[in-house]
Amino acid sequence: MLKKLFKLFTAPGKATTDPQVLTSGNHPIKRRQISNGAIKTIETLQARGYDAYLVGGCVRDLLLGRHPKDFDVATNATPDQVKELFRRARIVGRRFQIVHVYMGREMVEVTTFRANHNGGHRQAVQSAQGQLLRDNVFGDINEDAQRRDFTVNALYYHPADDTLFDYANGLPDIEARQLRMIGDPETRFREDPVRMLRAARFAAKLDFSLEPATAAPIPELAPLLSNIPPARLFDEFLKLFLAGHALATFRVLREYRLFGLLFPETDELLASDDGFNQRFIEQAMRNTDARIAAGKPVTPAFLLAALLWPVVVKGDAFYRAKGEAPAMAMQKAAGHTVAQQVSRIAIPRRFSLPMREIWEMQGRLPNRSGRRAEHLHSLPRFRAAYDFVLLREQAGEILDNLGDWWTRYQDADPDEREAMVSKLGGRSGGGRRRRRPRKRPPAGATS
Ligand code: ATP
Ligand code: MG
What we know:
By secondary structure, this protein is an alpha+beta fold. It is built from 22 helices and twelve strands. Among the domains are: 1-176, Beta Polymerase, domain 2; 362-428, no CATH class. A hairpin with a 5-residue loop joins strand 7 and strand 8 (132-134). Helix 20 (382-394) crosses helix 21 (402-411). The longest helix has 22 residues, at 300-321. The structure holds adenosine-5'-triphosphate and magnesium ion. The site of adenosine-5'-triphosphate (ATP) has 12 residues, from helix 8.
């Protein structure tokens, strides 16, 4: 259906103030695909004389035949005017104010039309690198379209009239399945470097390509991401890796040299090792995507544990070589790794604590003798730590079938468990057991 519609369109790249308008029957969007909350929000705004449209990812996804994750609304009402109209609504954001309107269990994001910050007298606040620090200059719908990131994200849909508006030539790019930055790509990436991560995320999620002029400046501008507050990067991290397309996203991020800005130490180790680290991380991504596809819960703690594991392993070896006891070496390596990482991506403690437990339990799961197995099995982090062992083995690490042993242990009854433990015979089991290291550093170790 879309294909046929595109005959109407002018060539891409046309600077336009007149939108392409596709009236009812000339586009594939059906009103029933739109959430009740979004429809009600728009109707309420219109009843008070404001303009209101669906915009952004939801319109894009509907055109692609995908189920939108959420519905965003754009309006000419100011945030205060929006808030006044709804019983349950609050204004959020500073850099960019939006209103969260709650409708039953649904939340609809309502954004006021923004003007292009370069629009003469009305300046938004900008840093020396061209980064937009405040972006609350209101404008009309056409200006609003021009300040959005990609052409495919700047489509507006009016449910009452069942009409689609394209102010930025997004429809040809939907058809070509490509992401094209609106305006000059370099300028727009400088205004907000997170747009580079968004490009990678949408490319992976939608299986779109980056239009060449949009892709070109990214590797060189990637270092601008170090100006982004770590808390915002944590939010982006979640969207990048916990939306069901982690593996594809990881590959795109590496292709455009963005990954190193998020996980610098991991990135270095990916370049230098024999391929184990890459297999390991890709396997973690694959498992995460599979869990999400199966509707199972995922935690950022596990994925972060995997993404930083190469760094922890390296640190652990370093501290052991300095003569630290294994538990202490692991603890120091974990502490160092987290301290470095949070300067890039702020990891809330509710995730960094379980992440560290997963790491620390890697050293403990091989020691199963006596009552240890029973105790380990009872710990709250056992399941995640066990999954992590399986992941290491899946990626090719040899752990003397440790994962298999624990799989059988979990399925066994108490008698069988006891037999399993006594079969370990004196040794605490697992080939990686080491003798207690001497206090003195071994000969040749630097300190
Ligand atoms: P998703 O499916 O992930 O929700 P989305 O396109 O809706 O994708 P959002 O982060 O919800 O993404 O943003 C909604 C819309 O706001 C985008 O489609 C885009 O038009 C605009 N937008 C969001 N972030 C930016 C940005 N950093 N720069 C310019 N426009 C942006
Ligand atoms: Mg959205």
